[in-house]
Predict the structure.
Amino acid sequence: MNFSISIHSMRKLKNVTLYLILLLFPSLIFGETILFKTGERTYATVIDQDSNSVTIIRDGKREKIGKSKILKIIFKEIKDEQEIARIFEAEKKKFNKEGIKSEKEEQLDTLYLEQMIKENSYKIVQKRLALMEKYLEERDGDWESYISAKRNPWEPVWKSAILPGWGHSFMRQGAWSSTYSTLFFVSLVAYFGLDAAEKERTKAYDKKIEKILEQQFTSSLVSSSSLPTGILEQYYQINTFKNLNSLNSIRSDESAYKHAKHSAAIVAVGIYLIQLTHSYFSGKTWAQNNVLQTPTGETVSEGFGIRGNPLVSKDLSSGTRSIDVGGQILYSMFY
């Protein structure tokens, strides 16, 4: 029966310590002494085997060595020449006249090698995990609490409803967040800018009308003077033509700004609804992606829990049945 408590600060310290050990003293963790029948030796990490060969990593390169060439693989680095000589002599005594070990010795070597490979595989995974965690810590020191925290699929939705792009930013989807927030606020700024331009054109139209009325009043005063009638009529026609062109131009600008303003409003509303819908579907996936599972596929949640089958029944050769207590009682604590 196993009892384990996962605490963020202790695990973080453990990973940092492991990383430093792996970085500063790799030979203490990764290194086997491989003795050859020729009397030579090498130092490497055994990672796999088959019926005819073993696979090692030496100087960062993967190699295969035939088992027929190997005298002994020792699960540590040995530099002492006297100890190596002693092992050579002890191993040579295990061979018969044909230079072959007994079946029992071969089975022991195979089991020993399998255990060695399992240990090395575990250490390699630990090393990679330590490096990955260090990389994540450098990029985002809050990554663990972000991953392990309980997630509500509606949280990104209401955040996006309050501020477009906020929901995607909360889900660490920076590209979508920047795109939606930029497009929305650019559309919003364009709307208010075009609205101000439309109002300015409306004021300009009103001022132009006032100016025309002033000109007509002035013209009525001029008509009572001693100017010839033909000149006055020509003046009225030119002035009327200019005023009409000016009013039409102002109205045209006002209409264009109004149309563009409505388009900007439609774009802003469209972007708002699109990002809101997107945050809903993304939030559903996002809320499911932080479900922590064991290697066997069991879901891990905060608090006490039992992993595996606590009662294991075994049939013994004598015909009787025994019941063993198995499984694990775990307490998981998320920070």
In short: Residues 155-289 form one domain.
